[in-house]
Amino acid sequence: MDDAQNLNRISTLETNVTALQVDDAAAKLAIAALQALGVQAPVNQAVNSGDTTLVVTFSPALADANYAVLAMPDWATALSFSAKTKSGFTLAYGTEVPGTGHNIVYIVVGT
């Protein structure tokens, strides 16, 4: 590879690094804006085989219990929420976790 090709590759790498830095800054701004609206980052929670509930504890606690929970398990089941406080909530599954390697993704939205 000659010098011109090396310079071209370096220039391309510098452009890609700059684009990643801009994307990272934009992502951080978007996350901060969502958090200001009361949207917490999604949580991908591993669950145990045979379980029928998941107790979620916030750290730190939220200001109050005026929040919504959006949850998506990776197996077919109904979901319900109970014991919702500023410190957390309990998620109950209609069908027990059917084995190992399963997760629930949840997002908490509130102020």
Task: Please give a quick description of this structure.
By secondary structure, the chain is of the alpha+beta class. It has one helix at about 5-35; strands at about 45, 55, 65-75, 80-85, 90-95, 100-110.
Question: Can you put this structure into words, describing what you see?
Answer:
31% of the residues lie in helices and 35% in strands. The protein has one helix at 3-36, and strands at 43-47, 53-57, 67-73, 79-85, 88-93, 102-110. The longest helix has 34 residues, at 3-36. It starts with a helix and ends with a strand. The model has no long low-confidence stretch (mean pLDDT 83).
Main attributes?
111 residues, alpha+beta, 3-stranded antiparallel beta sheet
Strand order of the largest sheet: 1-6-3
Number of strands: 6
Poorly predicted runs of 5 or more residues? none
The N- to C-terminal Cα distance equals: 57 Å
Mean pLDDT: 83
Query: What is the fold named in CATH at topology level of the largest domain?
Result: Immunoglobulin-like
Helix content, binned percent: 25-40%
Number of H- or I-type helical stretches: 1
Annotated CATH architecture of the largest domain: Sandwich
Supply the helix-strand structural class.
alpha+beta
Give the helices and strands as they follow along the chain: HEEEEEE
Strand fraction: 35-45%
